[in-house]
Design brief:
The protein is α+β, with helices and mostly antiparallel strands and 235 residues long. It is built from four helices and nine strands; from the N terminus they run αββαβββαβαβββ.
Length: 235
C-alpha cells in the first residue's frame, strides 16, 4: 500500500513538472520572440537666407613720418565710415580696429632701400551686420574708393563671410519633416513585406549641417539634418 502511495505521488510530481515546463515554454515563446523591425533614415533639407554678414574691410597705407601717417589713417577711416553710412550701414554695424603698424627699418628680412615707406599701416574696419544686402552692395562698390586714393584689399582674408544664426527657430519643424520622411520610407518597406508600421522602437538625430547653397551664392544657405528611426513591424 505504501509503495502504491509513493508511485502515485511520483506521477503527480512528474505531471507537475510537465505542466510547469509547458507554461515556461509557452511564456518564453511569447516573451522571447524578437520584434520584427525596420531601420530607416529621413532627410530634411531647407534653403534659407543668411542673416549675418561679416566683412573685414581692410586697406593699407604707408608713410615715413608717424604723426603724418596718423593723420592719414584718421582721414581715410573717416572716408571709409562715410562710405559705409551711404550704403545703409550704421555705427552699430561696424567697428574700427586699432591699426597694425609695421616698421620696415627694423625688419631683418627687408633689404635696405627696397621699401618706399618706413612705416606701413594695415587698417581693418570689421563690419558685422544683419543687413546682409547692404554689406554685399558695399563690397561690390568698393572699387569706387580708389577715387579717394584708398585701395580695399580683395584677398581671401578680406572676403565677406555669410552666416545663418536662426537654426534654433527651424530645428523643430525640420526634425518633424525628417521623421515624417523616415516613416514614409518605413511604410513603403512594410507594404512590400506585407506588414504594417507600428511604434518607434529607437530614434536618433544626426547633426545639422549648414553649407553654401552654391558657389558664388554664399548669402543663401542649405540646412540639412538626417534622422535614423527604427520602427516595429506588425503582421
Amino acid at each position: 500500500m505504501e509503495n502504491k502511495t509513493v508511485f502515485t505521488s511520483c506521477i503527480i510530481i512528474a505531471a507537475g513538472f510537465v505542466i510547469a515546463a509547458f507554461v515556461v515554454a509557452a511564456g518564453f515563446g511569447k516573451i522571447g520572440k524578437p520584434d520584427r523591425t525596420v531601420s530607416v533614415r529621413g532627410l530634411a533639407e531647407r534653403e534659407v537666407n543668411a542673416d549675418m554678414a561679416v566683412w573685414p574691410l581692410t586697406f593699407s597705407l604707408g608713410g615715413n613720418d608717424l604723426p603724418v601717417l596718423q593723420k592719414n589713417i584718421v582721414a581715410d577711416v573717416k572716408i571709409m565710415t562715410s562710405y559705409l553710412d551711404r550704403h545703409g550701414l550704421t555705427k552699430d554695424d561696424y567697428t574700427v580696429q586699432a591699426p597694425a603698424i609695421t616698421d620696415t627699418s627694423v625688419n631683418p628680412y627687408m633689404e635696405n632701400g627696397k621699401s618706399k615707406y618706413t612705416y606701413i599701416a594695415k587698417v581693418v574696419i570689421l563690419v558685422r551686420s544683419s543687413n546682409t544686402a547692404s554689406v554685399k552692395n558695399a563690397q561690390a562698390d568698393s572699387l569706387d574708393l580708389m577715387g579717394s586714393g584708398i585701395a580695399v584689399l580683395q584677398d581671401y582674408d578680406s572676403k565677406i563671410q555669410f552666416e545663418f544664426t536662426g537654426l534654433n527657430a527651424i530645428k523643430p519643424e525640420m526634425i518633424a519633416d525628417a521623421t515624417k520622411n523616415a516613416r514614409a520610407a518605413a511604410e513603403q518597406f512594410a507594404r512590400d513585406s506585407g506588414s504594417s508600421v507600428g511604434k518607434i522602437k529607437t530614434a536618433s538625430q544626426g547633426l545639422f549641417t549648414i553649407e553654401d547653397a552654391a558657389v558664388g551664392l554664399e548669402e543663401k544657405k542649405s540646412v540639412r539634418v538626417v534622422t535614423t528611426v527604427e520602427y516595429i513591424l506588425k503582421d
